[in-house]
Automatic annotation (TrEMBL):
<feature type="active site" description="Proton acceptor">
    <location>
        <position position="104"/>
    </location>
</feature>
<feature type="binding site">
    <location>
        <position position="122"/>
    </location>
    <ligand>
        <name>substrate</name>
    </ligand>
</feature>
<comment type="similarity">
    <text>Belongs to the ribose 5-phosphate isomerase family.</text>
</comment>
<feature type="binding site">
    <location>
        <begin position="82"/>
        <end position="85"/>
    </location>
    <ligand>
        <name>substrate</name>
    </ligand>
</feature>
<dbReference type="InterPro" id="IPR020672">
    <property type="entry name" value="Ribose5P_isomerase_typA_subgr"/>
</dbReference>
<feature type="transmembrane region" description="Helical">
    <location>
        <begin position="20"/>
        <end position="39"/>
    </location>
</feature>
<keyword id="KW-1133">Transmembrane helix</keyword>
<dbReference type="InterPro" id="IPR037171">
    <property type="entry name" value="NagB/RpiA_transferase-like"/>
</dbReference>
<keyword id="KW-0472">Membrane</keyword>
<keyword id="KW-0413">Isomerase</keyword>
<feature type="binding site">
    <location>
        <begin position="95"/>
        <end position="98"/>
    </location>
    <ligand>
        <name>substrate</name>
    </ligand>
</feature>
<protein>
    <recommendedName>
        <fullName>Ribose-5-phosphate isomerase A</fullName>
        <ecNumber>5.3.1.6</ecNumber>
    </recommendedName>
</protein>
<keyword id="KW-0812">Transmembrane</keyword>
<feature type="binding site">
    <location>
        <begin position="27"/>
        <end position="30"/>
    </location>
    <ligand>
        <name>substrate</name>
    </ligand>
</feature>
<comment type="function">
    <text>Catalyzes the reversible conversion of ribose-5-phosphate to ribulose 5-phosphate.</text>
</comment>
<dbReference type="InterPro" id="IPR004788">
    <property type="entry name" value="Ribose5P_isomerase_type_A"/>
</dbReference>
<comment type="pathway">
    <text>Carbohydrate degradation; pentose phosphate pathway; D-ribose 5-phosphate from D-ribulose 5-phosphate (non-oxidative stage): step 1/1.</text>
</comment>
Protein backbone atom coordinates (compact mmCIF):
# COMPACT_ATOMS: atom_id res chain seq x y z
CA UNK A 1 0.00 0.00 0.00
CA UNK A 2 1.22 3.48 -0.82
CA UNK A 3 0.82 4.65 2.79
CA UNK A 4 3.01 1.81 4.10
CA UNK A 5 5.63 2.67 1.50
CA UNK A 6 5.47 6.38 2.39
CA UNK A 7 6.09 5.49 6.04
CA UNK A 8 8.96 3.14 5.15
CA UNK A 9 10.66 5.76 2.95
CA UNK A 10 10.27 8.37 5.69
CA UNK A 11 11.72 6.08 8.37
CA UNK A 12 14.67 5.12 6.13
CA UNK A 13 15.57 8.79 5.62
CA UNK A 14 15.69 9.29 9.39
CA UNK A 15 19.06 7.49 9.27
CA UNK A 16 20.50 10.76 7.96
CA UNK A 17 19.37 12.80 10.97
CA UNK A 18 22.03 13.43 13.62
CA UNK A 19 22.04 15.09 17.03
CA UNK A 20 22.44 18.85 16.81
CA UNK A 21 21.09 19.20 13.28
CA UNK A 22 18.73 21.88 12.05
CA UNK A 23 16.34 19.83 9.93
CA UNK A 24 14.18 21.22 7.12
CA UNK A 25 10.74 19.63 7.02
CA UNK A 26 8.99 19.40 3.67
CA UNK A 27 5.26 19.24 3.16
CA UNK A 28 2.74 16.55 2.27
CA UNK A 29 1.46 13.14 3.28
CA UNK A 30 4.86 11.40 3.10
CA UNK A 31 6.42 14.12 5.23
CA UNK A 32 3.58 13.64 7.73
CA UNK A 33 4.99 10.13 8.38
CA UNK A 34 8.46 11.65 8.72
CA UNK A 35 7.30 14.21 11.26
CA UNK A 36 5.57 11.51 13.32
CA UNK A 37 8.70 9.30 13.31
CA UNK A 38 10.99 12.25 14.05
CA UNK A 39 8.72 13.24 16.94
CA UNK A 40 9.13 9.76 18.44
CA UNK A 41 12.92 10.07 18.20
CA UNK A 42 12.87 13.52 19.77
CA UNK A 43 10.78 12.26 22.66
CA UNK A 44 13.32 9.44 23.02
CA UNK A 45 16.16 11.98 23.35
CA UNK A 46 17.27 13.04 19.84
CA UNK A 47 18.29 16.71 20.00
CA UNK A 48 17.37 18.52 16.80
CA UNK A 49 15.55 21.67 15.81
CA UNK A 50 13.51 22.14 12.66
CA UNK A 51 12.36 24.68 10.12
CA UNK A 52 9.19 23.99 8.17
CA UNK A 53 8.22 24.64 4.56
CA UNK A 54 4.54 25.16 5.35
CA UNK A 55 2.27 26.23 8.15
CA UNK A 56 0.80 22.69 8.18
CA UNK A 57 4.20 21.05 8.68
CA UNK A 58 5.17 23.57 11.36
CA UNK A 59 1.98 22.81 13.30
CA UNK A 60 2.40 19.05 12.89
CA UNK A 61 6.01 19.20 14.10
CA UNK A 62 5.14 21.36 17.09
CA UNK A 63 2.39 18.89 17.91
CA UNK A 64 5.08 16.21 18.07
CA UNK A 65 7.16 18.26 20.51
CA UNK A 66 9.76 19.27 17.89
CA UNK A 67 11.21 22.77 18.29
CA UNK A 68 10.38 24.69 15.10
CA UNK A 69 12.37 27.84 14.31
CA UNK A 70 11.09 30.65 12.10
CA UNK A 71 12.91 30.23 8.79
CA UNK A 72 12.90 34.01 8.33
CA UNK A 73 15.78 34.10 10.83
CA UNK A 74 17.70 31.18 9.31
CA UNK A 75 20.15 31.05 6.40
CA UNK A 76 21.64 27.56 6.74
CA UNK A 77 19.93 24.21 7.24
CA UNK A 78 21.82 20.94 7.73
CA UNK A 79 19.43 18.49 6.11
CA UNK A 80 16.04 18.85 4.47
CA UNK A 81 13.72 15.91 3.93
CA UNK A 82 10.79 16.41 1.57
CA UNK A 83 8.34 14.54 -0.63
CA UNK A 84 7.95 14.70 -4.41
CA UNK A 85 5.32 14.12 -7.07
CA UNK A 86 7.82 12.62 -9.51
CA UNK A 87 11.50 11.72 -9.26
CA UNK A 88 13.70 10.19 -11.97
CA UNK A 89 17.13 8.55 -12.09
CA UNK A 90 18.85 11.93 -12.55
CA UNK A 91 17.21 13.00 -9.26
CA UNK A 92 15.20 15.56 -11.18
CA UNK A 93 11.94 16.03 -9.32
CA UNK A 94 8.57 17.68 -9.76
CA UNK A 95 7.12 18.99 -6.50
CA UNK A 96 4.23 21.14 -5.42
CA UNK A 97 1.06 19.06 -5.54
CA UNK A 98 0.82 20.22 -1.92
CA UNK A 99 1.34 23.82 -2.99
CA UNK A 100 4.47 24.54 -0.93
CA UNK A 101 7.11 24.40 -3.70
CA UNK A 102 8.30 27.99 -3.37
CA UNK A 103 9.11 27.70 0.34
CA UNK A 104 10.39 24.18 -0.31
CA UNK A 105 12.83 25.47 -2.92
CA UNK A 106 14.09 28.23 -0.65
CA UNK A 107 14.65 25.81 2.23
CA UNK A 108 16.28 23.27 -0.12
CA UNK A 109 18.64 25.95 -1.41
CA UNK A 110 19.61 26.84 2.17
CA UNK A 111 20.30 23.18 2.97
CA UNK A 112 23.64 21.39 2.99
CA UNK A 113 21.76 18.33 1.83
CA UNK A 114 18.26 17.56 0.61
CA UNK A 115 16.72 14.12 0.42
CA UNK A 116 13.41 13.12 -1.12
CA UNK A 117 11.13 10.48 0.38
CA UNK A 118 8.51 8.84 -1.81
CA UNK A 119 6.49 5.74 -2.50
CA UNK A 120 7.14 3.82 -5.70
CA UNK A 121 4.36 5.51 -7.67
CA UNK A 122 6.51 8.66 -7.77
CA UNK A 123 9.49 6.98 -9.45
CA UNK A 124 9.43 7.75 -13.19
CA UNK A 125 11.75 7.27 -16.16
CA UNK A 126 11.68 10.98 -16.92
CA UNK A 127 9.78 13.72 -15.12
CA UNK A 128 7.00 15.55 -16.95
CA UNK A 129 3.71 13.69 -16.74
CA UNK A 130 2.72 15.32 -13.43
CA UNK A 131 1.17 18.76 -13.44
CA UNK A 132 3.81 21.42 -12.90
CA UNK A 133 2.71 23.94 -10.25
CA UNK A 134 3.79 27.56 -10.63
CA UNK A 135 3.31 30.05 -7.79
CA UNK A 136 2.10 33.33 -9.21
CA UNK A 137 1.54 36.85 -7.99
CA UNK A 138 -2.29 37.17 -8.23
CA UNK A 139 -1.87 40.43 -10.20
CA UNK A 140 0.02 38.49 -12.92
CA UNK A 141 -2.35 35.50 -13.24
CA UNK A 142 -3.47 35.96 -16.86
CA UNK A 143 -0.09 37.16 -18.06
CA UNK A 144 1.75 34.17 -16.56
CA UNK A 145 -0.93 31.78 -17.89
CA UNK A 146 -0.33 33.10 -21.42
CA UNK A 147 3.45 32.77 -21.02
CA UNK A 148 3.12 29.16 -19.79
CA UNK A 149 0.92 28.34 -22.78
CA UNK A 150 3.51 29.93 -25.07
CA UNK A 151 6.13 27.66 -23.44
CA UNK A 152 4.08 24.61 -24.45
CA UNK A 153 1.67 23.97 -21.57
CA UNK A 154 -1.33 22.17 -23.00
CA UNK A 155 -3.56 23.26 -20.13
CA UNK A 156 -3.12 25.75 -17.31
CA UNK A 157 -5.57 25.76 -14.40
CA UNK A 158 -5.83 28.09 -11.43
CA UNK A 159 -5.77 25.95 -8.29
CA UNK A 160 -8.44 26.59 -5.67
CA UNK A 161 -7.09 28.24 -2.56
CA UNK A 162 -3.86 30.18 -2.32
CA UNK A 163 -0.43 29.48 -0.93
CA UNK A 164 0.92 30.17 2.56
CA UNK A 165 2.50 33.23 0.92
CA UNK A 166 -0.84 34.70 -0.20
CA UNK A 167 -0.26 33.92 -3.87
CA UNK A 168 -1.99 31.74 -6.48
CA UNK A 169 -0.93 28.44 -7.99
CA UNK A 170 -1.23 27.73 -11.70
CA UNK A 171 -1.09 24.01 -12.50
CA UNK A 172 0.47 23.63 -15.93
CA UNK A 173 0.29 20.38 -17.88
CA UNK A 174 3.18 19.99 -20.27
CA UNK A 175 2.66 16.26 -20.85
CA UNK A 176 6.28 15.80 -21.79
CA UNK A 177 9.23 17.99 -20.85
CA UNK A 178 12.04 17.45 -23.35
CA UNK A 179 14.45 19.91 -21.76
CA UNK A 180 13.67 20.50 -18.06
CA UNK A 181 16.56 22.94 -17.62
CA UNK A 182 15.40 25.12 -20.51
CA UNK A 183 11.83 25.07 -19.20
CA UNK A 184 12.93 25.94 -15.64
CA UNK A 185 15.03 28.84 -16.91
CA UNK A 186 12.18 30.09 -19.10
CA UNK A 187 9.67 30.05 -16.23
CA UNK A 188 12.23 31.66 -13.90
CA UNK A 189 12.43 34.52 -16.41
CA UNK A 190 8.68 35.30 -16.41
CA UNK A 191 7.91 38.32 -14.21
CA UNK A 192 5.15 37.44 -11.75
CA UNK A 193 6.04 33.72 -11.71
CA UNK A 194 7.52 33.46 -8.24
CA UNK A 195 8.50 29.82 -8.18
CA UNK A 196 7.80 26.44 -9.74
CA UNK A 197 7.96 22.77 -8.95
CA UNK A 198 10.94 21.76 -11.11
CA UNK A 199 13.74 20.70 -8.74
CA UNK A 200 16.72 19.88 -10.94
CA UNK A 201 19.78 20.55 -8.77
CA UNK A 202 18.44 20.42 -5.24
CA UNK A 203 18.00 16.69 -4.55
CA UNK A 204 21.09 14.83 -3.27
CA UNK A 205 19.43 11.47 -2.63
CA UNK A 206 16.01 9.84 -2.69
CA UNK A 207 14.53 7.07 -0.57
CA UNK A 208 11.84 5.36 -2.62
CA UNK A 209 9.82 2.52 -1.12
CA UNK A 210 8.02 0.12 -3.41
CA UNK A 211 6.05 -2.88 -2.12
CA UNK A 212 7.93 -2.72 1.16
CA UNK A 213 11.44 -2.41 -0.27
CA UNK A 214 13.34 0.86 0.14
CA UNK A 215 15.81 1.90 -2.56
CA UNK A 216 18.26 4.71 -1.93
CA UNK A 217 18.96 6.64 -5.10
CA UNK A 218 21.94 8.97 -5.41
CA UNK A 219 23.12 11.24 -8.20
CA UNK A 220 24.63 9.39 -11.13
CA UNK A 221 23.10 6.05 -10.12
CA UNK A 222 19.82 4.40 -11.07
O1 LIG B 1 5.83 19.05 -3.06
C1 LIG B 1 5.06 18.81 -2.17
C2 LIG B 1 4.26 19.84 -1.50
O2 LIG B 1 4.45 21.10 -2.09
C3 LIG B 1 4.92 17.42 -1.67
O3 LIG B 1 6.09 17.04 -1.05
C4 LIG B 1 4.59 16.52 -2.82
O4 LIG B 1 3.41 16.98 -3.45
C5 LIG B 1 4.39 15.07 -2.37
O5 LIG B 1 3.30 15.00 -1.52
P1 LIG B 1 2.80 13.61 -0.93
O6 LIG B 1 3.87 13.11 -0.04
O7 LIG B 1 1.52 13.99 -0.19
O8 LIG B 1 2.51 12.71 -2.09
Amino acid sequence: MADDDKRLAAEAALDEVRDGMLVGLGTGSTVAFLIAALGERVRAGLRIEAVATSIASARAAEGQGIIVRDFAGVSLVDLTIDGADEVDARLYAIKGAGGAMLREKVVAAASDRMVVIADGTKRVDAIGAAKLPVEVLPFARSFVTARLEALGAAAVAVREGGTDNGNLILDARFGRIDDPRALAAAIDAVPGALGHGLFLDEVDAAYVADAGVVTRMTRGAD
